[in-house]
Design brief:
single chain; about 300 residues; alpha+beta; 4-stranded mixed sheet; 6 strands; about 60% helix
């Protein structure tokens, strides 16, 4: 299974068992899987089967399913409540034209709720069962179309994510090179600061100086963070090639990326390394924004 986005849309029309129908389905990102259905009232309960089928096809996303159904040869009939209409006509005749009240029109009276209702023939249990069977079969094709759009979008996102991982790796290499000469720079800076504070008749011994520099070097060492950062890049590349939904794992990995970048900035003590750390944080944020829509 290629990388899949949680954003997709599909539309499908069909007919069978004496009915015609139109499907529309769309999905957007969500932490889990949520399915909402809008169906004709006579198909109440069919949404349970729809949700089971969507759950079998998709792992994550907010999914909205809309279904309209029309019976072949169905002719809608208006039924008039004559008693209610007659009562309204009497009231209109009594008050119409008095006190600035306009005369009632027949179309206005028919528009009042309960006067005219649109009715269609009820669907039998056998008709409904046959319809649900063909609809379920057609839904499988609709879900295939939705998954295709999600995978198409996922393919484009995969290219962007791959490029971002390459940039993260490049910045990690720059940070490693920048950090390589820091021990000598720290020693020089420490000696300069020490010369301003110490008494000339009480110089600091070479051993003491070496100990202090060594302690500073240990506290400022970022090699471990850079090693973990590199391993996270390798893991992320594997996930992008996985045949399973990886959105949650990538999101967790982003937290680890952020942790290493934050530690790198806090340990840097060097403007060049700090800049690289900030660039890393910005890039990791962009990476995380992208994966929020990965299934």
């Amino acid at each position: 299974m290629p990388l899949s986005s949680m954003t997709g849309f599909a539309r499908r029309a069909g007919e069978g068992s004496g009915f015609r129908w139109n499907w529309e389905i769309k999905s957007v990102n969500n932490k889990g899987l949520e399915v909402r259905c809008k169906l004709p009232t006579f198909l109440d309960g069919f949404d349970l089967q729809i949700k089971r089928m969507v759950g079998g096809a998709l792992a994550r996303g907010s999914v909205f399913v809309n279904l309209t159904v029309v019976r072949d040869g169905d002719e809608a009939v208006f039924e008039i409540n004559e008693e209610r209409l007659k009562a309204l006509i009497d009231v209109a005749a009594q008050y119409g034209g008095h006190g600035g009240v306009a005369q009632a029109s027949i179309d206005g009276l028919l528009a009042i709720k309960g006067v005219a209702d649109l009715s269609v023939r009820e669907t039998s249990d056998d008709e409904r069962e046959a319809l649900e069977q063909v609809l379920a079969k057609d839904l499988l094709e609709l879900l295939k179309a939705l998954k295709a759009t999600r995978e198409d979008e996922g393919g484009r996102m995969g290219e962007v994510l791959g490029a971002q991982l390459a940039e993260i790796q490049s910045l990690s290499e720059q940070a490693r090179a920048t950090a390589g000469d820091r021990v000598e720079a720290m020693q020089t800076r420490f000696l300069t600061q020490l010369a301003k504070l110490q008494n000339t008749d009480k110089p600091v011994s070479e051993d003491r100086l070496a100990q202090e520099v060594a302690m500073m070097a240990v506290k400022a060492d970022v090699q471990e963070e850079l090693d973990r950062l590199d391993s996270h890049v390798v893991e992320a590349k594997k996930l992008l090639k996985s045949d399973k939904p990886v959105g949650r794992r990538l999101d967790f990995l982003c937290q680890e990326f952020n942790r290493e970048a934050n530690t790198l900035c806090s340990k840097s003590g060097d403007s060049a390394l700090t800049k690289i750390g900030l660039d890393l944080k910005a890039l990791i944020d962009q990476f995380r924004e992208q994966i929020q829509n990965i299934e």
